[in-house]
Give the backbone structure.
Amino acid sequence: MKNVLITGGAGFIGSNFIHYLLKAEPHISIVNLDALTYAASVDNLKNLPDLSRYIFVEGDIRDRTLIEDLLRKYTIDTIVHFAAESHVDRSILGPELFLQTNIMGTFTLLDAAKRFWLEEQSVPKAEIRFHHISTDEVFGSLSSTDPAFSETTPYAPNSPYAASKASSDHLVRAYAHTYNLPVTITNCSNNYGPRQFPEKLIPLIILNAFSGKDLPVYGDGQQIRDWLFVDDHCAAIHVVLKHGVIGETYNIGGNNQPTNLSIVETICDLLDELVPDQHVPRRKLIKFVKDRPGHDRRYAINIGKVNADLGWAPKYSLNEGLRETIQWYLDHLEWARSVHEKRDYQKWISQNYTERDGKQ
Ligand code: NAD
Ligand code: TYD
């Protein structure tokens, strides 16, 4: 791993990964390709550990000419593919962009990599890798007694987002099987941590609770997710890049299964402790709102394979991760304010919440 192309590196996980990798690998160079959609922030890339090994390119993963130019110009040997439309609620209101970005974008990257690496043989084959970042949502929903998702759980995506990610996973698999493209895939659970766009549950609740606004909980709040602190996710991707077996997929998770309601309550309690102002007790701000259509009830992820084969396990407990995340948002209120002021953000909040407000 010398010259790494990271797609979607101005978003939440990608930007955390760039900070992580520049620190962990003192000899690699990174090209970050990002289209700067609503979810991106160039501020996420402030204070990088070493700017001399980092280049930002604004562009779209569906732009075949641009991708090929970048692969050639920087002699890319490793692609770590994060770029995606990533919010389930947005995929319900507007699925088409998810299909274009997540499916056609992944296809474009795979096909350009195949040409550059396998047809032009521009980099020694032993050095190349396409790593695809995917989600546990491709496995669908579990009942309360089902075993956790393993790497062999059949795909059963339920939302347009999950279906588009499942499609992209299948394309990655097909390029490995048909053309011998050296790939690895990680399917991870819900991430949280610094720099997450505040329309996802945890940052939305932190910022609303901080300023005394309603805390919207969909349906009965008894849905269950596995929550992975983003630094733990970065460490998992790093270990898979270094030691993962070509062609394998690895499930990555945080080893916890709280209900959404208990996550919201924990955030309220932590904030009450850290900011004991007029909004205490913040639990009174919780508001049950109309449920998400087709809302998956439970996700749980079995990390036995990555643990046994590569020695990875999450380091952060949910409580430690939440505390660190809350502190980051409290220390970066200016970052949050700049997102809140964006027109697109205001439009989204009114689209997603105003209509469902108060309805069960
Ligand atoms: P994000 O929405 O915060 O960031 C996505 C980034 O991709 C943004 O910077 C955006 O500008 C960029 N992007 C979107 N379309 C693009 C295009 N056509 N060309 C170039 N760049 C484009 O997402 P995230 O939460 O950081 O997720 C990153 C990846 O991890 C995604 O593939 C997502 O499916 C996967 N994932 C996320 C989670 C999670 O909890 N956030 C969990 C599992 C898997
Ligand atoms: P989200 O952060 O959107 O991630 P995902 O849908 O990919 O799991 O949502 C996490 C959970 O929180 C999910 O069950 C939906 C729920 N949720 C709420 O209850 N209220 C909200 O305002 C949001 C955004 C999500």
Q: What stands out?
A: The mean pLDDT is 97. Residues 3-189+227-252 form a domain with the Rossmann fold fold (CATH 3.40.50.720). The two ends are 51 Å apart (CA to CA). The first strand starts at residue 3 and ends at 7.
